[in-house]
Specification:
By secondary structure, this protein is an all-alpha fold. It is built from 16 helices and four strands.
């Protein structure tokens, strides 16, 4: 399901999960989704909510005042989205499918929250004295402004999307993305982290990224061994619950920025690798540090690949 969600939408859902944990609930409901949309800050939904007068501190207080705390010790693996949320996600997918590109953004999620007047998020908004018609107007205004802001075209004149979507991945990029999710499921975790992205890159045999990593001393076996020792196994997961961690989402956003900077219309394995290298923390960097890998060497080799193949989003391995 979440493969059709934008980076900002995924970030807001991750924050919603944190909101539920903070209040000691093991089920994420629409009120937590609303808090995540506000806290994400940069999406269309967050901007519309700010314009309507919704503040994060007041919204958090309202949620706790209305439903209290769960008083349940919560682990990441325990968190699930409520049936109400699942229904809202389906509605958001339906809304997003009516436009191009087909991608659920924060505005689509907020729109279905506004329309579902009986959901908990709508209750919070009423408690805060926010008229839903006013919020809807603010959302449409921000959305219109967003659409009116053009994105610089690629060298071929193609207008590129602003934000990362899995649909932008090359064939090998998709293999990396899918392998990251499979590895997360294998280790019984619910959040796809940067270490799983690293495993995905190494598993994509024949890609330039895997070649660069291998030539600098990294193998999938070594990475998985360190990951198992340092991170360990989770307590079980369901594939439908898997989402990107905030850092993993940042990697793909950086990768798309790298692709756009080079006037590429797709995100390939080398862009993902360069996005990973832009982080200064995360499981992947801890693993490479434990294995005493020279990150500067990887960066130099990655730059050289694009010097030799400047127009190819998925350069051949050499």
């Amino acid at each position: 399901m979440f493969s059709q969600f934008s980076g900002k939408a995924i970030a807001s859902l991750n924050l919603a999960q944190e909101a539920a944990k903070r209040l000691e609930f093991n089920e994420v409901d629409s009120a937590h989704i609303l808090l995540g949309l506000i806290e994400e800050e940069n999406g269309v939904a967050a901007r519309a909510l700010r314009l309507a007068g919704v503040e994060l501190r007041q919204a958090r207080f309202a949620v706790e005042q209305l439903w209290g705390r769960g008083y349940v010790p919560v682990q990441d693996s325990d968190l699930v989205f409520s049936p109400e949320c699942t229904k809202l996600f389906d509605e958001a997918l339906l809304v997003a499918s009516q436009t191009e590109p087909f991608l659920v953004d924060t505005q689509d999620i907020l729109l279905v929250l506004i329309k579902n007047k009986d959901c908990r998020a709508a209750t919070v908004l009423r408690h805060l004295g926010i008229p839903q018609d006013r919020l809807y107007q603010q959302l449409m205004q921000v959305r219109t402004l967003e659409l009116a802001t053009s994105t610089p075209p690629s060298e071929g004149g193609q207008v590129l999307p602003k934000y990362f979507s899995p649909r932008l991945l090359t064939e090998k990029g998709h293999l990396v993305y899918e392998e990251a999710f499979r590895t997360t499921s294998f280790f019984a975790h619910t959040l796809v982290g940067t270490e799983q992205i690293l495993v995905g890159l190494l598993s994509c045999e024949g890609s330039a990224a895997a070649t660069v990593l291998n030539s600098n001393g990294l193998t999938r076996m070594d990475v998985e061994a360190v990951a198992h020792r340092v991170i360990g196994r989770g307590s079980g997961t369901v594939s439908e619950k898997l989402v990107l961690s905030h850092l993993a989402e940042t990697v793909f956003n950086y990768a798309w920025s790298e692709a756009r900077r080079r006037h590429h219309s797709q995100v390939g394995t080398m862009h993902i690798l360069m996005g990973l290298l832009q982080l200064d923390t995360g499981g992947a960097l801890h693993i490479m540090d434990a294995l005493k890998i020279n990150l500067a060497g990887i960066q130099l080799d990655a730059d050289q690949v694009f010097i030799e193949h400047p127009r190819n989003p998925e350069p051949p391995s050499t």
